[in-house]
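Help! Submission page says 'invalid entity' but I think these are all valid:
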Amino acid sequence: MSTVHAAKGVSSGATEVPERPFLSVENLSVKFPTEDGLVQAVDGVSLTIEQGKTLAIVGESGSGKSVTAQAIMGLIDRRTARMSGQVWLDGQELMGLPMPDLQAIRGSQIAMIFQDPMSSLHPFYRIGDQIIEAIRVHRSVSKKQARKETIDMLRRVGIPAVERRVDDFPHQLSGGMRQRVMIAMALINSPRLLIADEPTTALDVTVQAQIMELIASIQDEFKITVILITHDLGVVADVADEVAVMYGGRVVERATTAALYLKPEMPYTLGLLSSIPRMDKEMDRLDPIPGNPPSPINLPKGCVFQPRCAYWERVPDDLCKTTRPELLATVPDHMVRCHLEPEVRREISASVLSVLSGGRS
Amino acid sequence: MVGLLFLLSLAVFFLFNLLPFDPARLTCGKVCTPQLLEQNRHRLGLDLPPWDQYLAFVRGIFFGRIYAPDQPFPIVCHAPCLGYSFLRHAEVTTLIARALPVTLWLTLGGFIVWITFGVVGGIVAALRRGRWQDRVLMTVALFGYSMPSFFIGLLLIFFVILQLQWLPFPSASAVQAGPFANPVKFFQTMILPWLVIAILNAAFYVRLTRNQVLETFGEDYVRTARAKGLPERTVVVKHALRAGLTPIVTAAGLDIAYLMGGAIITESIFSLPGMGSLSVNAVTNYDLPLITGVVLVAGIFIIAMNLIVDLLYGFLDPRVRIG
């Protein structure tokens, strides 16, 4: 650990490693060299979570949220990707770990649920056996004991008729059931960190709510720290303590959930909030963000959101087109990456939100 | 399955028996009079209309057949009668029964060598993709794939048997006697033919396995396997390769069936008296009953292996299982 030097912005003590939060991602960058050029999937992302809390990472497709999660898990192929930065989990740095040590952590300390339960379970093995395999790779227990644990866990995540279902193949289960199996598999070794990568995106709307409830209740029960990755801000409000909004491989706004919903500052976050359909308000139409996310190969030179931003002309000297804004605190625990003056941002935010809350005059 | 066999027998029979050769003329001898020719034709059953000839052929398969029972020395062909070779004066079934074990040993041994090298090589290439191990394997595979088998065979004979004298000359009788009669001689004879067959086929299986493993590497369930914390070897063999096994099994089944019909060139080079040599002899001598028999048996192997492969699918992939 002594060779690892502290990242920028974290003061490094002379002898002791400074106190870090439970999970701390520091200046994470992931680049994929391709034939078309260097894909900047994640660029200097820093995140922290305290133990037992839920952090939501929100963003469009291609914003780098899934890559961030997989980098934390060490699932990115080190041979094809260029990675830098640090991931600290409870005082241990993960990015520099040799493969066998990382494998010992995966599935036991950090577990992950994926987006598509249809394709995330191996189609040729019985679901019970897949979970038993996950137990026995980390703990030396008998097959019988592992099977018993598996059945208990499957029952806990709400699989009906477990004794029969445990020997089913994935294709014999519905999407929601498969996601429950994935959750059972993730929880089976009592991980301390659970990464849920769009766990409800591929599911029916009715099932989505059940799965989110399940994740929330599990978090209460097992006291797990959760990173929830989603593009659905509606899901976030119920479960997350903190939210990080990502855009173009960067965190553009980070705040507590309440602050993000009540006082968002970054124009992109405003755009996301305006795109949520609401049942409780009368709205003529949704206000989507115009344009498309930037290509990760040719990111704009200035602010990555500038081409789609409605307010960049309010910043003098075309600063948004020429200079990347930094992620700065506007109030404590609220970070924003935007060139607009805080007062201007809040003014814009207030007017947009008042329209959203039905104040059409 | 039964329908397919029926169609096969029909096709094989008419294809070869309606060729413009006259077997009666071939067996007639030097002093051939029209009377003798007519007599021969009757003995061979060729004076019947084609449809009756076919029925006699099929009936022979199930009940045996007696050629020209009204003649002084009728020829008896026993129950699974695929015809009678008048050139060799032997039942086709007997000839095939003698040749088939040789081909079976050739195929079986060759298969074990090629599938081992092919799959292991493919996995190594996939794991080391883009690195020197991958490149070396792929280049070797390309050479193996492109080399004609007679060339590989002759090279091996020249160096291993003639120059280095590591092995004695192949012994056809040792092969016919099987591996249990004289194991040393058997293996000494078979090892080079196995190598030839293995080099040809392994090359293809290295590429196939490599592609299958690389393809399944991108699947979500392989990522799940990694996320579980499984060691990379388990991820590759138990999860990635297992999922990509189906095309490999398909190809292997068909290749085995194809080889069971006779590895013509390999058998000729090493003078192994298998199905390949048998069919070459049959063709060069216009031995029509033998050709018909050999082709029919080869066809049956293809149909049977197809069935076996289909059954294996159900074993490999639970989604294909019925009920």
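Support: the input was valid. A stray whitespace character was the problem, and the output above is from the cleaned input. The radius of gyration of chain B is 24 Å.
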